[in-house]
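Hey, resending since the last one bounced:
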Amino acid sequence: MTTTQGSGPLQDGGSATGTDDDALPARTEVVVVGAGLAGLACARRLTRAGVEVLVLESSDGPGGRVRTEVVDGFRCDRGFQLLNPAYPEARRVLDLPALRLQPLPAGVLVADGGRRHLLADPRRTSPARWGAVVGGGLRGPGSLAEKAAFARWALRCATRDPGDLLTAPDEPWGAALDTLGITGALRRDVVESFLAGTLAEDDGSTSRRFVELLVRSFVTGSPGVPWAGMQAMPDQLAAGLPPGTVRCGVRVGSVSRGGVVTSHGTTDARAVVVAADPHAAAGLLALPRPRMRALTTFWHVAAQPPTASAVLHVDGGRRGPVVNTVVLSNAARSYAPAGGPGGRALVASTVLGDRGDVATEKAVRTQLADVYGTDTADWDLLRTHAIPAALTAMEPPLDVRRPVALGEGRFVAGDHRDTASIQGALVSGRRAADAVLEHLGLAVPPRDPLDAAAGSTIAHLA
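The structure tokens again:
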């Protein structure tokens, strides 16, 4: 991951993080390599079970791929990311009210040749907007037959038992939509652009199972961003650990059955959990390298919001590299220093691939002028996040329970062991922790209960 550093560990004053000047202990019960969501979730569960844990992080703060940089008062996450509060594991391990989530509206605005069509879920749209939603749905891209086929598919994803979705025959999602008759302008101008930014691909190669689980989560939840940025999640997890648990600026060179060798010496342990990024984990544990997908996010600042809408925008004409864009400060006022409408606006735009070059940014700016219907020449480029390993590829056949126990006291955690999502990272951390407890001969505590609303959502990932 290339262009950004986080805004600093434990922004809210937690004390779990040590500095790279602190000497490492010669021995501990468990070492967790990596302070991303999976590693922190693993450490949280282990420490709550009374296990001594040392979390080693090579960068300057916790978060892994979930970091936030504050630039001139604007919050720029490490790539455009959202948290879906419908995720059961997020409800278990995160204090969601404390994150003060700011949701994006449930819909997509399709810009095409000067026309704007709002496609939204009427159940989560104010009555004052129903006319625009119905009109946008009827006049928007695609024939009535294609729209009906898409509605049937989305409804089936939302209402079908998650276990059935996971056990159904798998295939690339593009082939699945072909079979369903979703093959026209709705797919080309809306569905493919929307999913491209979520899956980091537009060739239809991702597992149908994974895509249908995503559709289910979109229907049942309202994704948003924390008030303090996405890094508030790992900061919250780290702050809940015992003081000194997380040590930053420590690089792990090798892992053995008896501990780790690091840039700061050797630490012996009864178990080691590698929760580093997928390629680093593969190198430390001699595992196959999972296929990763790249995304680039351009963060622009406009003197005024180019639209009052906070809805995700897609370019129906696909006239440039942007797959989606949003005036994020319209949805999340804490992301801009003005703190309210009328001031400078933060615009996040996503492009497939590792493409943070000047020529791509110029093409992005040109395309945004068409999408928003305004001159973008005077927009300031605040940050570019070109992330070559943004997401783990979820190719068919999808396996959501890859092994986490590797033998000889070695374990692995990360979304590459479950699903490429915040939910998958948190679940893998819990699974690894439970496997460690069994290895140590300790009782595995029951999972925290879910409330009724959470239990009715995507229980397949619970």
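The first strand starts at residue 17 and ends at 18.

Sorry for the duplicate.
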